[in-house]
């Protein structure tokens, strides 16, 4: 048993490789290669590889997803908008997981959770099509009881709670947002959902989220890519995994 791979489940780390592709695309080169980044991340302790194929293809390209799918030793978590193009593409690739996310062309990054309540029928149709191909579906939503209840009603087995507001605040506001996330986790687990979380997490704010006992997985990308500039890619992955696991094990010892 190693520290990064203890016996039994502790908490999983999904490495988002989008911004490796962003660096590549900035100069129109073939490097840095997001496929290589994904495979090295697996070797360094990543439990899954997350990538977002956006409608405008601003970072990850179709060819990246196609090339990566057969090479992964863990599993692919493909983030996609609720559009017929993206759902059909996912059904052709058949990743282990598809996380349905909101998407706007004008945003720098995802600004909030998917509004499942408002778009119930469209999300339900997407979930059913993906599940028909044997793909596990996750919905990226805010820690709101109405959204979580709608996700459970649709039949999605997994939700990923948006942690962006927590990451962007501090002090009393951040503490209140943390409590909202904790309540959302309990509400989701109570409805039989696997609960993941992510967005905006980095090396000094992830601890409080990782300490929430019922969170199964955190998906983190930008902070790890940024830290890798100074620490190296594999070291950056290992450090994040170590922080998450040590925090969770420390909570269990209390």
From TrEMBL:
Positions annotated to bind 1-deoxy-D-xylulose 5-phosphate: 18-19, 54, 59, 109
Biochemical pathway: Cofactor biosynthesis; pyridoxine 5'-phosphate biosynthesis; pyridoxine 5'-phosphate from D-erythrose 4-phosphate: step 5/5
Annotated keywords: Cytoplasm, Pyridoxine biosynthesis, Transferase
Transmembrane segments: none
A single BP term in Gene Ontology: pyridoxine biosynthetic process
Site description Transition state stabilizer, residues in chain: 160
Function (record text): Catalyzes the complicated ring closure reaction between the two acyclic compounds 1-deoxy-D-xylulose-5-phosphate (DXP) and 3-amino-2-oxopropyl phosphate (1-amino-acetone-3-phosphate or AAP) to form pyridoxine 5'-phosphate (PNP) and inorganic phosphate.
UniProt record similarity statement: Belongs to the PNP synthase family.
Protein name listed in UniProt: Pyridoxine 5'-phosphate synthase
Organism: Rugamonas apoptosis
């Amino acid at each position: 048993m190693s520290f990064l791979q203890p016996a039994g489940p502790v908490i999983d780390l999904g490495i988002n490789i989008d911004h490796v592709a962003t660096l590549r695309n900035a100069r129109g080169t073939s490097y840095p290669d997001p496929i290589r980044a994904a495979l090295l991340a697996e070797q360094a302790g990543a439990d899954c590889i997350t990538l977002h194929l956006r409608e405008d293809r601003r970072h990850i390209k179709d060819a990246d997803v196609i090339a990566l799918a057969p090479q992964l030793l863990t599993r692919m978590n493909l983030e996609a908008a609720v559009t017929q193009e993206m759902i059909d593409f996912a059904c052709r690739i058949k990743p282990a997981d598809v996380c349905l996310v909101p998407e706007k062309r004008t945003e720098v990054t995802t600004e909030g959770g998917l509004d499942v309540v408002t778009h119930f029928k469209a999300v339900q149709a997407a979930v059913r099509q993906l599940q028909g191909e044997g793909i596990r579906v996750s919905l990226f939503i805010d820690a709101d009881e109405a959204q979580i209840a709608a996700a459970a009603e649709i039949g999605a087995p997994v939700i990923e709670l948006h942690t962006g507001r927590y990451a962007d605040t501090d002090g009393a506001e951040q503490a209140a947002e943390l409590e909202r996330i904790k309540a959302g986790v309990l509400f989701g687990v109570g409805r039989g959902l696997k609960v993941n979380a992510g967005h905006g997490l980095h090396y000094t704010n992830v601890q409080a989220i990782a300490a929430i006992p019922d969170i199964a997985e955190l998906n983190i990308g930008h902070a790890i890519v940024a830290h890798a500039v100074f620490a190296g890619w594999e070291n950056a992955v290992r450090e994040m995994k170590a922080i998450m696991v040590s925090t969770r094990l420390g909570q269990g010892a209390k």
